[in-house]
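Morning F.,

Quick status update on the modeling queue. The single chain you submitted on Monday has been processed. Sequence for confirmation:
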Amino acid sequence: MTYWIVWLCLAPAVVGCRGCASSDPLTEEEREAKREELKKKEKEKPPFEYLQYGVQPGGVEDAKDRPEVFVKPGHWTNATLRTRANNFDFRGELLSETVDQVSRPVRLDEVPFQLRTTRPIILPKGQQRLLEFSVFTPVETRTRNISMRLLTGVGGRAVFGQSEPVRPMPPHQYYFVVLALNPDAYSFLKRLDSVTAPGETFFEPLTSFHYRVALPRIKTIAPLPSQSLIWTSVAYVLWDDLEPKKLSPEQQQAMLDWLHWGGQLIVSGPESLATLQGSFLDEYLPAKGGDTWQLSAANLQPLNDTWLKGDRPIKAVRPWSGIHLKLAPGATTLVASGQEPLIAERRTGRGRVVLTAFHINQRELRDWPSFDNFFNGGLLRRPPRQFRVVNEQLNVQWADHHPTHDVERISQVRYFTRDAQCDPKLLEGLMRGRAVTNAPSGDDGLQLNPQTQFNQFGVQLPPEQQDPAYGPGAAGWNDFSAASNVALDSLRKAAGISVPDARFVVMVLGAYIAILVPINWIFFRLLGHVEWAWAAAPFISIGGAIAVVYMAQLDIGFARSKSELAVMEVQGAYHRAHLTRYLALYSSLGTEYQLRFDDQSALALPFATGQRMVAGQGVGTVDYRRTPQFDENEEVSQVTLDGLEISSNMTGMIHSEEMLDAGGGFGWQPLGGSRFRLTNDTKFALEGVGVIGPHHIGWVGSLEPGAAVTVELAGRDPTAPNAWSDVLDKAPETSAQAGEGLNLRNLYLLAQNQVGDGAAADEMRLIGWTADQIAGLTIRPGSTQSRQLTLIVGHLDYGASTPATSDESSRLLAFQAVGKLPPPEGDPEDEKE
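Structure tokens below.
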């Protein structure tokens, strides 16, 4: 026993301490070497890694794939960069700009400036960050790249850079965005003729697209712009059972703004109704969901009755899963099964929401040969088309022979200051201050004429087959629209420098002589020291010179002055407004200006005045900067435009746009007959208010905030001279005899004569103006003189929607007419690859 006790006591000394030590077999020296090796590898990592980039809508793409990225020239675009700082926390700047193939910054259209955009960034060590930034691609230069650089701070050195190519989208091409729980189920949309519009063209096949279908896979936040005015390249959104919280509050607000200015939202039932209940879209849906509904072939027969082309109707082998729709106020039924709506739609401002009681991606529906006809005329609400086979190629054109790529039929998003059209002769008359009448009926407006185009055989293409002239298209940033031209003409007249008249010279000279001689002598005579008057004379001269300079500054705008003509556009009772500012900044000395906007939706660029660059002229750089709010302790987010240099005795022009809270919109309720109740729910006091439509007119006058008046409409002769000329002449702000101050007369007349165009043929519109200061913009340095006027354009009612119409033919019938079978449909992008 004693032997075993001694052995147990000596055992630890024999076996050592391995039993109670760590299981790590490495020695301390080996562990130290391993740590050093790990540190070395960590140091070998690049300071920054470029992971992914993309544009919105859509989202980031795998950088290894290097897919083609499409942007719309003349439109603002949000781009995204996913990057990581490997070795340290980084706080700095992200600078981006549009460059050409040799990395030179691309100049903005028609102005001696180039643009770069910046934003502050924070990159925690080892963590991926998705950075969102804004870019603007000019129209004139077609070959572009987006250059991205990380800077150590504002104006600091670049520590990382990357440049990526982008392809410009033609002016007629817009995004069709699918927000779905399963976006792959909608890939068939790319093969529809209403999306690709096949035709005989000399140009590359990708120009045949009317829409680029974006199918983002959404995990956390949808890859959509957070600013309203960056949605202008989106024509349609299809929503299918996506959780609304996948859109941030800023994205939700931007989507509502887009919807009120012409965006088209297609909601696929039935699950989406439950998903959207209580969401930001709930009050705009055309119907509420009821009980479930098993749709039989008999229930679906109305689709065949309206949209069937050929002899292959929809076949419901099994009942479709659907839901009963309960129409909301103001909604209408597009297709009904008996008394039950199958498809309902509702106007929302200029835009529209359409809702189906069944799944749009139902297999039997999308395999229906007439589905494209139903999609074009019913869901997209576009005019009917014709299909023909020419030289064994399918051609699609509008039934009324409008150009195939007519922008006005592809997107309905419109802003008055960007898209207002008028007859060129009318525009010339407005800018010369002549009396004008309405534009002739059927005029296509002020548009760029396309160049003559030919097919591959050298034959000139007819108008309906020609690609449109290069430009921004509808809803693009437009310094050359009718509204921009009229505003520029008015600002040039108001911002000029006038020499003081004779009365000013006589008054100043008389006051100086009176003070220098009699008053000076009498003053010192009373003091008993007349000789002191001689000593005071130099001081009086200096004081007189200072007074003359100060009075001249007030009289001619010496030093700095600001003139602002603005247009505020309101959609019905919607509380948000689109504000366009046209600014003229005069400086007697060379000055660099900074514009600071309170709203994150604000966009600003130098205003193109139509003057071409001359050889040797220098090009400046303006910096558009959006500062996001990282946390509650940060300064409130803001938007600035820096670097706007104006030479001595010169006037610089700026064009800015933003969405603002107007406090409310305009109420317009019928009282019976030709009487209506008009309510001003905005926070602005209006003057010169009139209500006008294609066939009716009514004068209101002043309209205070919160006031309500009864408007008696009278008939309007569309060929008669402009309305209210006599009453407008009574106010200097709208008088035809414009003085040296700001004048809204021509903008007012443009808003009158543009009523009844395009899809808003039965619109009733309010036109007025306000001298109230529109808050939200600070200009540094400030101006000794500041004057502003704002035109108000309120869209009260767009009238009833036109009936949905079916195509005159179809793909299948066109090929049958020439004794052939249609080829299998395919994605043009797949064929290209």
